[in-house]
Amino acid sequence: MTDAPILEIQDLRISLPAGGDRPYALEHLDLTVNPGEIVCLVGESGSGKSLAANAVMRLLPEPHVHVSAGRILLDGEDIGAKSESEMRAIRGDRVAMIFQEPMTALNPQKTVGWQIDEVLRLHTDLDRKARRARALEILGDVHIPDPASAYNAYPHQISGGQRQRVMIAMALVLNPRLIIADEPTTALDVTTQKQILHLIKEMQRQHGTGILFITHDFGVVAEIADRIAVLRLGELVESGPAEQILNHPSHPYTRALIAAVPALTPPAHKDLSAAPVVLRAQGLAKTFAARGGLLSGRRQAVTAVRDLSFELRQGETLGVVGESGSGKTTVSRIVTRLLDADRGEVVIGGHDLIHADRRQLRAMRRDIQMIFQDPMASLNPRKRVVDLIAQGPIVHGVPKAEAHARARELLSLVELSPAAAERYPHEFSGGQRQRIGIARAIAMQPKVIVADEPVSALDVSVQAQVLRLLADLRDRLDLSLLFVTHDLRVAAQLCDRIIVMQKGEIVETGPTAQVFADPQHPYTQALLTSIPGRDWQPPKLTDAA
Amino acid sequence: MNAPDIEPAFEPQLSRPSRAAVMWRRFRRNRAAVLGLVLFAAVVLAALLADIIAPGDPLRRVGVPLTAPFVDAATPLGTDQLGRDILAGILHGARISLLIGVVATLISICIGILIGAVSGYFGGWVDDLLMRVTEAFQTIPSFVLLLALVAIFGSTIGNIVIAIGIVSWTAPARMVRAEFMSLRRREFVDAARNLGVGNVSIIFREILPNALPPVIVFASVVMATSILMESALAFLALGDPNFASWGNMIGQGRAVLRTDWYCTVIPGVAILLTVLSFSLLGEGLNDILNPRQKK
Question: ipTM of the predicted structure?
Fold first, then answer.
C-alpha cells in the first residue's frame, strides 16, 4: 500500500440551478483523504457537505446540480473523465457509501444476505457458495450476533444498530479504498452510536481504508476524526488535524460552532425544595394494545410506560432522558393528555388531568402547553404565524383583536421581527419555526411547558440559541419545564433534575449534577460513557461572538 | 452575549409577488391547462349568451328539418329531424351541462368530504362502519345505480343532478379519508388539540385545508364524468325531455346518424371539448396546488 492519497478533491465547485439562494453549492473545496485516515467533513445543514460526498460518487442530480470546476482524483485518476459504466464498476468496489438511515437505504423487500450477495455478484466472479461464505464472514466481522440468521433476515426484522452494521458490512465486503459515511450514526441511540463508531474505527485500522466521514456533531468528530474540514455555506473555512481544530480553532465560524457545543457541565444546583409543586404525576401506565384484525393474528401488546411517578416544582426544569423505546415520548403525550393513560393521575393546580371530563380538560389545557419536536410538522402550513400563535387564546375566549396584538408582542419576546406575523411557516428556517412554536406555547400563559425533543431537529448553533431562549423565558416567566430529550449534552445544559428512563421505567432520578457526577444505575453509567467526545471539553472561547 | 448568533435575523422580503400572481404563473407554464381554461371560458360564455344569440325556446321548430350546417344563415349549424336549431340546442345545452357538472360535483364532493373526514379522523368503528357503506356503493356499477335511481324517482333535471351526486361520492370519500389518516398524525394536529381546539374545528379548520388540493383536482374529473353520465342518460332517453341537453340531442340524432351525421357529431364535439377542458383544467390546478410534484 502506497502513501499516496486515496482521494484528492482539487478546487471543486458544484453549481446549483439558476434562481436558487446561491449560485454554487460548493466552491474552492480542497480535500485529501490518505490511506488509513478518517477525515471529518463538518458543517450545518445547507453547507453542501452531502453534495460533496455525492460528487465523489458521481451521484449528483445532474444536470440541475453539476460539477462546474475542479477535479476529483481517486487514486490519482480523474473521476470526471470516467464513463458511466466505469463509474458503476468503481462504486461499491473502490468507493463505498454508508448512509444515514439504514432502514431506507436497505431494500425492505430483500433479505440482508441477498443484498450483500448482490454487491458481490456485481463486482466479483465468485460462485454462489463462495459469495455466501464471504457474506457470512463480513457479517461476523461487523460483530453481528449469529450471522447465519441475520443473513436470512429482512431489514425490518433486525434492530437499527444491526441494520447500520449491515450497511457497514455491505460497504466493507469488497475492501474498498475509500468509504464515504454520510452521518452514519445520527439516527442511532447514543449507546449504539458508540458501538458503531468503535466498529468503523476498528474496520478502518484493519483494512487501512480511507474514510470521509460527514457529520454535524462535534462530539462524534472528537471521537473519531484524524483530520477535520469545516464547511460553511459551500465554503471550506478551515481544515487541519483534529487536535488543532478542536482545541485551537482559528476561523470565527469554527470557533462559533465549537462554542455552541453544549458543555457537559450541569448548571449549579438550585434548591427548589421550598417551591410549590405545580405538577404531580402518580402511577402513570400505558400499554399499547396491538390491534389485531379479523384475519391478522393478535400481536403482542407493548408496555410503553409502567408505574411512573414524579413531581415538577415551580420554576424547575425536569429532564426526561432515555433512548428510543424508553417511553419518554409517551410520558410527554400522557402528561398533556394527547394520549390517554391506562392508569394513574396527573395533578395540576389541584385537578386531575387524566380523569378530567371534556369541559374541565379544555380549561386545564391552558395550564399545560407543549413544544413539539419537528418545527415543520407542528405548525399548520396553511395558517399565518399570527393566527398560529393567537389560536389558543382565541379558542379560550380572548377577543380576536386582543389575541392578535398579544401574538405580535410574543414575537418580539421570542426574538422574531414583528413582520413575521403575516408570513406562513414555510418561509422560516428551522430555528425560527421553533421560536414560533415556543411563542404559541407561552401565549396560553401556562404553568407547565412540556418540551418534546424541542432542539433535536436543529443545527448545533441554532440549538444553542433556542436553548438559551427557553432558559431565559423560563426564568422570566417563572415557568416549569418538563424537558424530554435523548441528548445528554442538551439535558446537562438546561435541566435542574433528570429522570433516566429505560423500557418504560425510571431507573434513576436526581439533581443533574449529581447524576452526571456519580451515576448509580448501570444503564445511566452506560448512557453517560456513550456520550460521543465525552473526553473532549470544548475549549472556552471567550471571544466567540 | 456568549452563544453566537449564526442564524441571520428574519428579514421580510419587500417586493414579493402576491399569492394569486404566483399561482397564475405556475398555471400559465402548463400550455394544455391554458387551453383548458380557454375552452372552459368558451362553454361558460355559450351558456351566458344563449338567450342573446339564440333567443326563445331552443326546442321549438325554426326551419326545414334536417338542414345541413352552413346552408341556411338562420340556422348556421343546421337543424335536426324536427326542424330545431342545433346552434340554439348547443348554447342552451351548455347551461344544462354546466349546471349538472357544477351541482352534481358539489354534492358528491361534499358527501365525500364529510364521510371521508369523519372516517379518517376518528378511525375505529366509525371508520369501519362508514367504509363498509362506501364499499356497498362501490360494488354497484355507478351507472347502473344511476339508472335505478332515475327510474325510481323520475327523470326531472333536479333528480338527475342529485342522483349523479349520489353515485359519485365514493372516490372522493376514500381520497379524503386517506389524506385525513396521514394528516391526523401530524404534530400540528396534536398542537391544536393541546390548545383545546374541538374536534369539529380540527377537522374543518386545521386538517381540511391541507387535505383539499388533491380533492379539488379530483373534482374536475368528477365534473367531467357527471356531464358524461347525464349525456349517457339522455342518450338512453332517460334525460329530462323539457330541456335541450347535449345528450338528448345525440340520442335523437342517432336515428339519422348515417344520413345526417351533424345531428350527433356537433353535440358530441361539444361534450368532448367540455370534458377535455375540465381534464386539462384539473391538470393545471394540480400544478398550482401541488407544485412540488413536478420538477
Answer: 0.77
